[in-house]
């Protein structure tokens, strides 16, 4: 006849430890990503660690009509995006050039304009620069999905010893699978080749074959079918931005006073750009007690 041994003190002491170990293992286990729902919003933020898309209900953007001094590149990007939304071939685009001249604002404004023409036709998905190596996972998530996706990376650049650009090159055009038909990639950068000049010069001076080394570095920009350049604006364009914003948001100030203040503001900031114009408008709206409607 067998008798069940009553639990010993040691058994009772170890049970809480086993539970704590089990809880710790549960926390270390990878989270199962939620099912992809590209219909949940018109814009998303790619969260690389969780491998999921976070819906963004309100996008920080400026209306397309308020972007001044960039008419030529605006029309090119708008036409490229419109073709993509219609299911036609379209190019990846690199928006490069002077700081604060509306590169990222244009991407977001074009997305809104296209969705205004055909409701919810495009999903805007932002991927952060530091997560660029996870781009293949993001493409796998959206590949074959019914909705077309505009992938966007702001301020994309690479520094010394940064090899992430190699994986980006393969993803954009060089890999076996290639870019999914329902995806186009837009990036903004202050640098035309997304790498500092001294980095390129260093490669040229130290490589066995200088031309091949430089070509390896700059060939990333070749993966973008569109290169759209943004350049510093003159005072007339800067004042046109100011007057356009003031009219759009109902900021009542005498024209001469508005222009004089705007010029003084640009002098204190050391330059003129769309960003400087917007910062002046925010200051003016605050002084006038006016809200800037989204």
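^ Assign residues to that structure.
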């Amino acid at each position: 006849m067998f008798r069940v041994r009553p639990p010993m003190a040691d058994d009772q002491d170890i049970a809480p430890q086993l539970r704590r170990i089990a809880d710790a293992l549960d926390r270390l286990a990878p989270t199962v990503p939620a099912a992809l729902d590209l219909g949940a919003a018109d814009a998303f933020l790619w969260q690389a660690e969780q491998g999921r898309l976070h819906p963004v209900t309100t996008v920080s953007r400026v209306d397309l009509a308020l972007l001044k001094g960039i008419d030529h590149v605006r029309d090119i990007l708008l036409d490229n995006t419109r073709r993509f939304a219609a299911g036609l071939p379209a190019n990846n685009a690199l928006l490069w050039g002077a700081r604060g001249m509306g590169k990222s604002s244009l991407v977001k404004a074009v997305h809104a304009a296209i969705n205004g023409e055909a409701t919810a036709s495009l999903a805007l998905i932002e991927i952060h620069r530091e997560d660029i190596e996870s781009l293949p996972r993001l493409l796998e998530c959206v590949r074959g999905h019914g909705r077309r996706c505009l992938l966007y990376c702001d301020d994309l650049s690479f520094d010394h010893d940064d090899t992430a650009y190699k994986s980006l090159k393969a993803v954009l055009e060089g890999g076996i699978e290639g870019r999914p038909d329902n995806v186009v990639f837009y990036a903004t950068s202050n640098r035309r080749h997304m790498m500092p000049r001294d980095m390129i010069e260093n490669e040229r001076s130290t490589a066995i074959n200088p031309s091949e080394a430089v070509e390896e570095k700059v060939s990333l920009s070749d993966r973008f079918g569109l290169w759209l350049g943004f350049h510093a604006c003159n005072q007339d364009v800067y004042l046109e931005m100011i007057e356009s914003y003031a009219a759009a948001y109902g900021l009542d100030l005498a024209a001469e006073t508005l222009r004089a203040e705007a010029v003084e503001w640009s002098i204190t900031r050391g330059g003129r750009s769309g960003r400087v114009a917007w910062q002046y408008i925010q200051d003016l709206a605050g002084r006038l007690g006016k809200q800037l409607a989204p």
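The mean pLDDT is 83.
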